[in-house]
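Posting this for the archive.
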Amino acid sequence: MIKFKNNILIKNIFILLVSGAIAKVIGMLGKIIYTRQAGVNVVSLYSLITPTFMLIISICQFSFPIAISKLAAENKYDNKKLLISAYTLGFGINIIAMILILIFAKTIANLLHNQLLFKPIIAIIFILPLITISSIQRGFLHGKENMLPGAITNITEEIIKIILIIIVFPLALAKSNIAAVIAIILFNIITESFSIIIMKVSIKKYLKKEKVKADKTIIKDITKISLPTTLIRLISSIGFFLEPILLTYVLVKSGYAPNYITIEYGIISSYIIPLLSMPSFFSTGIASALLPNITKAYANKKYQEFNSKLLKLIILTIMVGMLCLGLIMLFPNKILDFIYGVDFGINYIYLIGPFFLLLYIQPALSVGIQAMGKTSKLFYVSLISTILKYSVLFISATLGFGMNSLVFSIITGIITTSSLILIITLKTINEKT
């Protein structure tokens, strides 16, 4: 029986890694097509509202994938009642989020010094219910150890995005830059709908035919699990949301033109950071694959074995990161031209690039913290890192460092997060050895 369970675990890890790799490659292809078609103006406009977009999604997802996965795995409640309760809670959160968007959309656009962004922010409303439903479905299937439907949807979503970018996006772009930004947001309606349909087919076999109602006890249980995790994510999401607003506010007061800020912010956040972040996919994949093994060693109090495996994992991620980062640092112009068809932002690569080596070891250190049952510590890591990061952004911008203020804040965030996670890991290891 144990052997069978291990086989399922290995199979699920394999499915997640392979599907994740395929989705990442297809997604990168879509990114290449999108950035080449859109141009820096549209990319910059979209990057300016991306933090707002991600904050709203974080709220509406409410960590459902984690909470529903846990409750579905426990088989404590009727499957259909669990899903109905989750949908009820999710739609309640959606309604609140929609009202807040309608109230504050114009204010956010004004804070970003671009009133044209009002319509793209309003467009986010239309995709929220679909994102909530797909998050709940994905969590349910993961809880039932059925990873294949979620893996399929990851790939199909990226394929559909590419088709939409090739066929529909040029039509929106021909109308206006803002229409193109709205189109990119609304594409999620189609991708999420396909995901919901695919996962619904797999979920049917777990459900009984009789009608059920939402259960208050289940809603409370979901909230107990979701709320702490959501709060951790919201700290970084709120910081990310405030980033372009804070940067724009201070730099405009310093005499910089809003259009210049929009373009430069787009270059850093939509071209340079995604490029430098690419190697982290490998470290995340390696860390995820070894999590069960490392967790088992720690749970069985085999601390020397745990330390050895964690050290090997860190060394492996550093080696992969150094290789990828080395290529980016040596041939930045060729890589930027190949992927995005641009040749700007190379100075930012040289400034930020070396510090990303610390970012690449974060998944390995985070896996160590999860295995040691210290996940709650990540809340404080996120809080301290966010406060320091955006304090540096504000102070640097006020002192006249211009767009380099954003660079300094990114570096501060990477160093702070990596250092704090390392300190927590080493302290816990020392307590056990």
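The radius of gyration is 22 Å. Residues 1-6 have pLDDT under 50 and may be disordered.
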